[in-house]
Design goal:
The chain is mainly alpha-helical and about 100 residues long. Helix 1 runs antiparallel to helix 2. The longest helix is centred in the C-terminal third of the chain and has 38 residues. The protein starts with 11 loop residues before the first helix and ends with a helix.
Length: about 100
């Protein structure tokens, strides 16, 4: 059987990386906040909870920065691709202005 090869526009993996790092950053921030609040409620008896909460809250910042970097990279790649191939711009890249 012949299989059609799906053409992929620019920015495919950059979009996935941005999505994963953005939602990962949100989840890390949420769970970090919950664990930090739980350590306040439980008290100083569980330093692992406090340390894990702090670490998750600190990981949030680089993940969100990486998401923004991937989005900028994807936008730059789409702009250079549309300049080279203006006919298929809407079909492959979508309408990003």
């Amino acid at each position: 059987m012949s299989q059609k090869r799906k053409k992929r526009g620019p920015g495919r993996w950059e979009a996935r990386a941005a999505e994963l790092s953005f939602f990962g950053g949100l989840l890390c921030g949420l769970f970090g906040s919950v664990l930090t609040a739980a350590s306040w409620v439980v008290g100083a008896g569980h330093p692992v909870i406090r340390s894990l909460g702090t670490a998750l809250m600190l990981i949030t910042i680089p993940l969100l920065i990486f998401a923004g970097y991937c989005l900028d990279w994807m936008e730059r790649k789409i702009k250079t691709h549309s300049k080279r191939n203006p006919i298929n711009r809407d079909k492959e890249c979508g309408d990003l202005k």
